[in-house]
Amino acid sequence: MARLPRLCPTDIPQHVIQRGNNRQVCFAAKQDFAVFAGWLDEYAREFSVELHAWVFMTNHVHLLVTPREEAAVSRL
After folding, report:
1. I need a surface site. Which of 3, 10, 27, 60 has the fewest CB within 10 A?
2. What's the total number of domains in the chain?
3. What is the pLDDT of residues 17-70, one digit of tens each?
4. Backbone φ and ψ of 42, nearest 5°
């Protein structure tokens, strides 16, 4: 059975969690955090997502974001 589409309401802050597969390490070196932060900033602007807060852990990321367009978080 297919998964139902994810709700992504606009203009409502959302807590997003991204984990490594099987909780594997996503960021092996300090520079990995900086590279990911740069990509996150670039794509948040491109896809009209306001990025309010973030926490980068070695095996996962927490984001507090507000999408300004429909499905923007999914594209981020």
Report:
1. 3
2. 1
3. 999 999 899 999 999 999 999 999 999 999 999 999 999 999 999 999 999 998
4. -60, -50
pLDDT for position 75: 86
Report the relative pairing of strands 60-67 and 14-19 from DSSP bridges. antiparallel
Q: What are phi and psi of 4, to 5 degrees?
A: -70, 150
Domain CATH code at residue 34: 3.30.70.1290
62 is in which domain, residue-wise?
14-75
Ranges of beta strands (E only) in the chain are 14-19, 49-56, 60-67
Helix (H, G, I), strand (E, B) or coil at 16: strand
